[in-house]
Amino acid sequence: MDSQVSTIKGVKKIEATKKQPHAGGAFIRNILKKNTKGTGEIQIKELDESVLKKRLVKLDQELEDYKAKCAKYKKENDWYREEIETCQKDTADYIMYLESKKNEKLDAIQRLTESNQKDMDMYLLKRKKREEENQAKISGY
């Protein structure tokens, strides 16, 4: 079996008399890059149907894992959005409640102030009348 070794972008390629997959495709280069981690270089002749099927199964499993993670994170994100909306609504309701209580207290203060002012005016009026009566009694003697 005559074989010739050549290198394409750091990947060892062995050309043999058997029919080999075309090494120029991005798919094959990607597979070669993925499978060279820690195992040494992978040669084109090692990429037979069973290796590709295993890789496909592995990629399908990774895809399913990522889809599951995506669904999980989407649900979590939706929950956080609902929680934010609920908190914002609760905050707005609480602010309205506090403002109504503040307005009630301000109204009570206003009523007390007006009542106090009326009482003070009445007191001053009665005092003035008493002083005038006392002055009249003193002048009349």
From TrEMBL:
Coiled-coil ranges from the UniProt annotation: 49-118
Sorted UniProt keywords: Coiled coil
Matches recorded under PANTHER family: COILED-COIL DOMAIN-CONTAINING 166 (PTHR14845), DUF4515 DOMAIN-CONTAINING PROTEIN (PTHR14845:SF0)
This protein's name: DUF4200 domain-containing protein
